[in-house]
Design a protein that fits this description.
Blueprint: E1 2-3, E2 6-9, E3 23-26, H1 27-30, H2 35-46, E4 55-60, H3 66-79, E5 84-92, H4 95-104, E6 109-113, E7 125-131, H5 140-150, E8 155-158, E9 170-176, E10 179-186, H6 190-199, H7 202-210, E11 220-223, H8 229-240, E12 249-250, H9 271-279, E13 285-289, E14 296-300, E15 305-306, H10 308-317, H11 323-328, E16 332-336, H12 342-350, E17 354-357, H13 365-369, E18 373-378, E19 382-385, H14 393-407, H15 411-422, E20 424-435, H16 437-452, E21 460-463, E22 466-475, E23 478-479, E24 486-487, E25 492-496, E26 501-506, E27 514-524, H17 532-535, H18 537-547, H19 549-553, E28 560-561
Bound molecules: 1,6-di-O-phosphono-alpha-D-glucopyranose (G16).
Catalytic activity: alpha-D-glucose 1-phosphate = alpha-D-glucose 6-phosphate
GO cellular component, one term: cytosol
Organism: Asbolus verrucosus (Desert ironclad beetle)
Length: 562
């Protein structure tokens, strides 16, 4: 049947500005007439001449409104001359899987339907982001173009009679405006599982999980938090590695509202997992992922918590346990600015280049493409390597299992050994969610004034018997070493002469109000086994005094502490 596209008149919506990783808003906002259509059309317009005849990957974490959004994308893409869409079955693809597919199929990019770790369901969040040819999140230059287009859009192209189902795998070909338009629906996990099997030694990991004559099964508890990773966890941990579907995995059916939980793998929102591992000493390792599968949290026996910054440093120190790196070699390491500097010490010892970038995985892409960066991570529970251009939750757990299998040590012992070698960066992050935006902005302006004081360097602050002397105070900016692009205003940093750091920034991933993030990092060479919250108490007190957070926001306590 021949189908024809049409042009639909529309008017701009305010605020279609992508944040740290795509546009995230309440589902009800995306449901407004033409809201999603406008944004999708602007993404396609931003691709310019490359769009016609191109192939794009489409999929996401399956949250509420995904199916409607995919139908919109299909109809707009066909009308705009896209040749082919490759869609995950039932619209399901984790963010790392999209990145991998873009690279495997060598296509122009992918549209990812997710608000990541934000809650889902009709009352919560939806999101759309675009990943470019290298598989990574679009850089600021692209998302700025999209935003400018959203401010002046007057029409979008649409193929109203194009009905395409994406529940079964297979290829469908449509005639749109006299051209072939192809939709290929693929298995959501085949490509990703194949990639993981290339990177890791699966027989060895299976032996760890199943046990052998010398050691009992290593008991894991993998929690998909009702997000997209359930599909991949079933394939990889249960079918390939022999984990028990009853006792080693949980919440593995992706639900469009994530079962009304907040699918964010941290000590607050994954408390349920933490309690289970704490309450059952047979578990050797617990892990959780967020809604779209790019974040991870690792805990050891008795819920021993591994901070993401330490996780990155430990993996960096043990890359020789992973076949991929043995074969490919290791370039440099990188972390986002607020991430504790534990990995920097490993880089120095191994004589690797070390990069500090703004918050956002998109800032790692150029360095990876230029073969300067192999492994990177963020304090926001992101860890990954140059096997793709997104952070990768399942990859991180497989990396940890590879290290454990190789060293035959517990999670806690691996950490303790690491700290004894390198010293320890005590780190914590305080999140103040859904603050009034004006209050949060006023607090940030106050901090701007503090760092602008002529006598700020050398100033001392005291709390809990400790005194800190300011060495540097600035608003972080970054020059990309590859394309020389400059990114400014990435967070207020107050660095002290003993190496301690206090950082304040506003989150770029929320959908309403403002979330203030305060990061505290302090290094100890010898005292490595104390409680992080106790060790950091004086620094936190100084940080709260400098920012006057309570006075500006009225908040006594953070919403989340990690
Ligand atoms: C996104 C980005 C990450 C970033 C995180 C935190 O994560 O992909 O690179 O670290 O946001 O952002 P913010 O502190 O601005 O909220 P995700 O998992 O939400 O896509």
């Amino acid at each position: 049947m021949s189908l024809f596209s049409t042009v639909v008149a529309t008017t701009p919506f305010e605020g279609q500005k992508p944040g740290t990783s795509g546009l995230r808003k309440k589902v009800k906002v995306f449901m407004e007439k033409n809201y999603t259509e406008n944004f999708v059309q602007c993404i396609l317009d931003a691709l310019g001449d490359k769009l016609k005849g191109s192939t794009l990957i489409v999929g996401g974490d399956g949250r509420y409104f995904s199916k409607q959004a995919i139908n919109i994308i299909i109809r707009i893409a066909a009308a705009n001359g896209v040749h082919k869409l490759i869609i995950g079955q039932r619209g399901i693809l984790s963010t790392p899987a999209v990145s991998s597919l873009i690279r495997t199929h060598k296509v122009l990019g992918g549209i990812v339907l997710t608000a990541s770790h934000n809650p889902g369901g009709i009352r919560n969040d939806f999101g759309i982001k675009f990943n470019i040819e290298n598989g990574g999140p679009a850089p600021d230059s692209f998302t700025d173009t999209v935003y400018e287009l959203t401010k002046k859009i007057t029409e979008y192209k649409f193929t109203p009679d194009l009905d395409c189902e994406f529940h079964q795998t297979g290829t469908q070909i449509f005639q749109v405006d006299g051209r072939n338009f192809v939709v290929e629906v693929i298995d959501s996990s085949d490509d990703y599982v194949a990639l993981m099997k290339e990177i890791f030694d699966f027989p060895k990991l299976r032996e760890l999980i199943r046990g052998n004559e010398k050691r009992p099964p290593f008991q894991v508890l993998i929690d998909s938090m009702n997000g997209v990773t359930g599909v991949y966890v079933t394939r990889i941990f249960v079918e390939e590695l022999g984990a028990s579907p009853d006792t080693n995995v949980r919440r593995i059916i992706p639900l469009d509202n994530f079962g009304e939980i907040h699918p964010d793998p941290n000590l607050t929102y994954a408390k349920d997992l933490v309690d289970k591992v704490k309450g059952d000493p047979t578990y050797d390792l617990g892990a959780a992922f967020d809604g779209d599968g790019d974040r991870n949290m690792i805990i050891g026996k008795n819920a021993f918590f591994v901070t993401p910054s330490d996780s990155l440093a430990v993996i960096a120190n043990n890359l020789d346990c992973i076949p991929y790196f043995k074969k490919k070699g290791v370039y440099g390491f990188a972390r986002s600015m607020p991430t504790a500097a534990a990995v920097d010490r490993v880089a120095a010892k191994l004589n690797k280049e070390m990069f500090e970038v703004p918050t956002g995985w998109k800032y790692f892409g150029n360095l990876m493409d230029a073969e300067r960066l192999s492994l990177c991570g963020e304090e926001s529970f992101g860890t990954g390597s140059d096997h793709i251009r997104e952070k990768d939750g399942i990859w991180a757990v497989l990396a940890w299992l590879s290290i454990i299998s190789h060293k035959n040590m517990s999670v806690e012992d691996i950490l303790t050994e690491h700290w004894k070698t390198y010293g320890r960066n005590y780190f914590t992050r305080y999140d103040y969610e859904e603050c009034d935006s004006n209050d949060a902005n006023d607090m940030m302006s106050h901090l701007e004034q503090i760092i602008a004081q002529p006598d700020i360097v050398g100033k001392t602050y005291s709390a809990g018997g400790k005194t800190y002397k300011v060495k540097v105070a600035d608003n972080f900016s970054y020059v990309d070493p590859i394309d020389k692009s400059v990114t400014k205003n990435q967070g207020i940093r107050i660095l002290f002469d003993d190496g301690s750091r206090i950082i304040y920034r506003l989150s770029g991933t929320g959908s309403s109000g403002a979330t203030i993030r305060a990061y505290f990092d302090s290094y100890e060479k010898d005292n490595v086994t104390s409680e992080a919250q106790v060790m950091l108490k004086p620094l936190i007190a100084v940080g709260l005094e400098i920012s006057q957070l309570k006075q500006f926001t009225g908040r006594d306590e953070p919403t989340v502490i990690t």
